[in-house]
Write a structure and sequence with these properties.
Layout lengths: L2 H30 L11 H33 L14 H6 L7 H9 L1
Helix pairs in contact: 1-2
The structure holds zinc ion.
The site of zinc ion has 8 residues, from helix 4.
Length: about 110
């Protein structure tokens, strides 16, 4: 593993910390503000906030999963390799998206399907 890979790993670890802190913050907010159960059901703002938090939480969890998958690849030595063709993912692409699992070509191919 070279130095550049190490810097991607560090970024992924930082990203994981950030995502987990964010999820925890959302969880605390929901405990302080239990929503539906104790409030009047037709409080539209409340319902909207809950839906928004839920969407945000799902998004964070999905990202966290991707970050964890990428970190696991460091351990089995497949980080930076495309899951479809097995080729090296472009460095510039990893810089923009450290948890990318496909090379640009394969990504484009999937998007076309
Ligand atoms: Zn590929």
């Amino acid at each position: 593993m070279d130095r550049a890979d190490e810097s991607f790993r560090k970024r992924l670890e930082e990203e994981r910390e950030r995502l987990m802190a964010e999820l925890e913050r959302l969880g605390v907010m929901e405990q302080e503000n239990p929503g539906y159960s104790t409030h009047i059901a037709d409080d539209a703002t409340e319902v909207f906030e809950n839906a928004k938090n839920q969407a945000l939480r799902q998004n964070l969890q999905r990202l966290l999963g991707q970050v964890n998958d990428a970190l696991a690849k460091f351990d089995n030595g497949t980080y930076g390799l495309c899951e479809d063709c097995g080729g090296r993912i472009d460095r510039a692409r990893l810089k923009a998206l450290p948890y990318a699992t496909l090379c640009l070509q394969c990504q484009r191919q999937r998007e076309r399907l």
